Amino acid sequence: MKAGKISENILKRSVLRQIKSKQKEVISGAGLGKDCALFSLGADTVVCVQEAMIACTEQDLVKAVGAEPYMSIAHLIQKTANNLSASGATPIACMLAIVLPVDTEESLLKALMCQAEEKCKELSMDIAGGQTRVSEGVRIPFVTVTGIGKMAKNNDGLVKKPFGETKCEGILSPQDIVVTKWIGLQGTAILAKRNAEKLMERYPAYMIEEAQGFDKYLSVLPEAKIAMEFGVTQMRDVSEGGIFAALWELAERTEVGMTVDMKKLPLRQETVEVCEQCDANPYELLSGGSLVIFTVNGEELVELLCEQGIPACVVGQTNQTKDRILTNQEEIRYMDKPKQDAIYGNRS
Known about the structure:
Elements: H1 8-15, E1 26-28, E2 37-40, E3 45-55, H2 73-86, E4 90-100, H3 106-123, E5 126-134, E6 142-152, E7 176-180, H4 185-194, H5 196-200, H6 205-212, H7 221-230, E8 234-238, H8 242-254, E9 257-261, H9 269-278, E10 290-295, H10 298-307, E11 312-319, E12 324-328, E13 331-334
Parallel strand pairs: 4-5, 9-12
Antiparallel strand pairs: 1-2, 2-3, 3-6, 4-6, 7-10, 7-11, 8-10, 9-11, 12-13
């Protein structure tokens, strides 16, 4: 199997079909395109849980306080918070599981925890517990973050399910597809750091530095909160596999078709230049920081988001066919199943 997320067919065949148990407390569990599980634990509140994991290479992890990581524990915490928010929940805490090789220095562990605490403070989350182990069975560090959020029930005591369920009644009518900020932000930052020397040969230093700093845009909590208050049908944060994967998975879980205008997909010029030099497809590139939203009145939501300083645009509409169509001026083609993220094809 290839590095990164497993394919949709393998997920269905070897993971989801093996899950048989169903408990009444589990409102929404494992499924295609579902990033969070919902648990009903009382009359008014639902607990929402999401998990993310990375295996970190030497260049990816901080070795001491002050070092600059490409992918870090802070990124994982942000990812879980984004997933929770995109599911309609408010992030409140996380639990950390860290497995380290036997030759790890204590300074690395301390640096990881300092970074985690700083990110949690920024997101108003607590580190509620977890586990830290040293194992002879691993050669590189593994980090798992389990995010915990809360979600209120409605007046009927029921959970609003659209953000994790298929066959959503709210999708029966055409919906506008809104994308916030820009696609490829997180992947651009990583590629710009990995390939700084190569990029400097062609582009000015200020452009490379700007691209490397795209990490500052990775939170989707503000736009998710605005969208929830506005009233939307679906949300999904754009992550591994890029915008194409996010659109495909949203269409799969809601069982709708869609038409998307590629010219309207928001791209920073820095992303275009970095991807061109690194031979990466920006539409299939790690895109933390962007949120895809289905809503009836997309232009009104876009105006509201822009008033709050959050760039957004309507990029297409859903429909009741099974076709997922991409248009590019006169060109029309069908969307494919998600591919391996472009970030894995660049290891410079």
